[in-house]
Design brief:
Layout lengths: L22 E9 L2 E6 L2 E7 L1 H6 L12 E6 L5 E6 L5 E5 L7 E6 L3 E7 L6 H13 L3 E7 L6 H14 L4 E4 L8 H7 L5 E6 L5 H9 L24 E4 L5 E4 L12 H7 L1 H7 L16 H7 L5 H18 L2 H21 L5
Length: 352
């Protein structure tokens, strides 16, 4: 029976029958197509079979940090990954660059901590991007407002209130790696056998928080800038770390871009209030921009929905829809996109 790194046969059933000579392990590091896998006897370096390379239709078919894999060990004490067990959850975004493709950030995550800070990294619109990709992957989010030692209690209270006003049902905790404020709550959240992921923009303090949780300087942290009083981005790759209590943490590099893939499920969860209001619109295909009888616009005018949240929802919805189009549809969409944006700006409700 396998009992390490959060494995259970209910969530990750083994092949039946298990191929002779094969072992199971979990990917704990990924370096551009090269992997380190933890199995019952320790850590081993691994590659993938030619079959995976040549038959995979996308990068999503390759192993990612958090994956459970079936592998064989060679005489040179290296492993070859033959298969990936079905994933329970997947955190993905649109890959950077002009090519429209998905990038898997990490998999088999139970809870994702979205780390923000109160400086220019504080953005409710960006927060909703993270929430959308987290919900879309079937993962539970918790929001961390970090670096509270740099702000007054009144300033922190205002930012926490802004977050909760926009997303009432999401757990929010405020922390400081310097003073250890809020770390007790995070510690209590980390349960044995569960996998947690830290995501956020560069410089918000993810690695510092993880170092505090681990109790050692395992994650490299750059010195705080004297000019800005802010930490600099340090993490350059994804890594799964096991804590003393048996919980597992995945740190990720700071993301400059959080582009959406097909994210209908994530949008429905992040903007559940807008989706509910839209059910009362006069037209079933209402775009919530200028149609008569739009219940969403009416809610904005009545002060029951923030205009900024509606703006961001429409922006993310277009982005998700655009990703799902084929090449021809994208070309046709591009011809009318600018006109649609102008129309929306001309008719959108004013702030109340």
């Amino acid at each position: 029976m396998i009992s390490f790194l959060g494995y259970n046969d209910k969530d990750f059933p083994l092949p039946d029958p298990m191929p002779e000579g094969m072992l199971i392990g979990r990917v704990v590091e990924e370096h551009r197509g090269h992997y380190f896998v933890m199995y019952e006897k320790g850590l081993i370096e691994a590659g993938v079979t030619g079959k995976i390379i040549h038959t995979s239709e996308s990068k999503e078919a390759f192993p990612a940090v958090g994956d459970w894999v079936v592998m064989a060990i060679s005489d040179k004490n290296q492993a070859l990954i033959h298969d990936i067990l079905p994933r329970k959850t997947v955190l993905r975004r649109r890959a950077s660059g002009k090519i429209i493709a998905e990038q898997v950030i990490a998999v088999n995550i139970d809870i994702a901590f979205v780390v923000m800070s109160g400086d220019e990294n504080f953005s409710l619109n960006r927060l909703e991007r993270y929430l959308t990709i987290i919900y879309n992957g079937g993962i539970i989010p918790i929001i961390i407002l970090n670096k509270t030692d740099l702000f007054t209690k009144a300033e922190v209270d205002i930012q926490v209130l802004e977050i909760k006003k926009r997303h009432l049902g999401v757990t929010v905790v405020w922390t400081s790696a310097m003073t250890e404020e809020g770390l007790n709550f995070v510690h209590k959240t980390l349960l044995p056998g569960k996998t947690y992921c830290f995501v956020g923009s560069s410089g918000v303090g993810k690695s510092s928080l993880i170092n505090r949780l681990i109790g050692e300087q395992r994650q490299y942290v750059k010195e705080i800038s004297a000019a800005t009083a802010k930490g600099q981005h340090a993490t350059t790759y994804r890594e799964l770390i096991e804590l003393d209590n048996g919980s597992l943490l995945i740190d990720t590099p700071g993301m400059r871009e959080v582009g959406l893939v097909a994210a209908d499920a994530g949008l429905e969860e992040t903007f559940a209030d807008i989706i509910t209001l839209a059910q009362n619109c006069r037209f079933s295909d209402c775009t919530h921009s200028n149609e008569p009888g739009c219940a969403v616009i009416a809610a904005c005018k009545a002060g029951n929905l923030q205009v900024e949240k509606l703006d961001n929802y429409l922006r993310l919805k277009r982005e998700s829809d655009y990703f799902q189009m084929d090449t021809y549809e994208r070309r046709q969409k591009d011809k009318t996109f600018a006109k649609m944006v102008k129309e929306f700006k001309r008719n959108k409700p004013k702030k109340t």
